[in-house]
Amino acid sequence: MPSEFVAAIDLGSNSFHMIVARLVNGQVQVHDRLREMVQLAGGLDARNRLSQESQKRALECLARFGQRLRDIPPEQLRIVGTNTLRQARNSAEFVARAEQVLGHKVEIVRGQEEARLIYLGVAHSVGDVSGQRLVIDIGGGSTELIIGEKFDPLHLASLKMGCVSLSRACFGDGRLTASRLREAELLVQLTLEPVRQEYLARGWGVVTGASGSIKAIQDVLISEGWSREGITCEALRRLRAELLEMRDTAAIAGRWQLDPARARVFVGGFVVLHGLCEALAIEELEVSEGALREGLIYDLLGRIRHEDVRDRTIAEVISRFNLDEGQAGRVCATAQALLRQVSSKWRLADEAAAPVLERAARLHETGLLLTHDQHHKHGAYVLEHADLPGYSRDDQLLLSALVRRHRRSFPSKAFAHLPSDWARMAPRLCVLLRLAVVLHRSRSSVPLPAIGLRVDRGQLELRFPPAWLEEHPLTRADLQNEARLLRKAGFALRLGSPDSKLTPATSATPAAP
Questions:
Q1: Is the dihedral of CA 425, 426, 431, 434 positive or negative?
Q2: pTM value?
Q3: Dihedral of CA 391/394/395/401: which sign?
């Protein structure tokens, strides 16, 4: 497959979607779409663990998808998991198996990031409007509400209700009664209650719906003649009255020729949409073909064309926390200079390593707004738990871990909680960040001299111009203290001059992870 192709896979709670596209004359041209109703959320047990049966069903689907991805480079593909994989206690087990089947990395995105990507996909798939737009996406396990203008999401919410989860909770055996319908409607209203007034106060001009549930509802309304295009609140009321005449999901499937899997979750999706329209006074909405997977494609193309939303996110964090950009820039430049010297020997030539180190260096002082003494801990907490547009859950864990360990203690297991590919690289990236921070502890704008770094497994030697360390005794003392801290993580640091020789690593010195 030509290298101009890009692809995205959405591992949704109800369906898995794949899209393959390429950029032609500035426009995204879709070449292939695949969709399977895996109903991953239906495999969650009472302990929020994915059953082996649901995992098997999902992996078989991904094996079919994987055949289509064989010739697409990793940097031109994104695979994301959503609400069910956020919830599942054994999601790491499933993700590892999925990555093995696909041969590509799987990201789990937070609810706010999912909402951002959905809005991006919808905004590129429908006509432009003046003013604000409300986007509604009903997934299997969550519902996203986004108010935005043009291509910019302004307010996002991810609510824990979806067509699969609500159907399981209220119509698990497939039976439909008036009392069960009222119970489901009450659950929807309770979920909407905390955000209802806030959304009504913000307002919008146009409402757009996305997702399989909303499309299926539109198809039913059109087939009945209750709507010519889109969805109206009045048509939903007529559909509710018809559903009350049905006894079970089999009758629904027969009446509207729905796939049995879609029929099982149809009522749950309907109750969510009808509840939203009632609570937010929505009289009509258009239906978009684009959603999360299209948003992934446009986000990916932005990264390829160096319009990465993650860089904008970093700039926003810097502004919000009033960080010292001059100091961050100095630390970043030194860390990158050290990385260039060791990237081959330390196997850090992966193209993701340099951007990760840059972002950690630019944000390493995030916690200073709260306190100086423990700012590395506070900064790590913020970066792990904040909504950072463009970042997956693992991206944030990595960034947080580097900031947490950029100073003070550095235990050997500091990065054991990260995915295996990052657990190997992170300790070495962290060493480079720590050295850059120490070298700029004075916060002076005077440039550092040329500093060399040589490594041999877990041994490092920093080389300075003759007499420079003698002229900077405080820096020497800081580096000697850093050497003691690094020893706990399996690194041996020594200081030298340009003509010194690096002692090879021996069995007496533990190798770096």
A1: positive
A2: 0.85
A3: positive
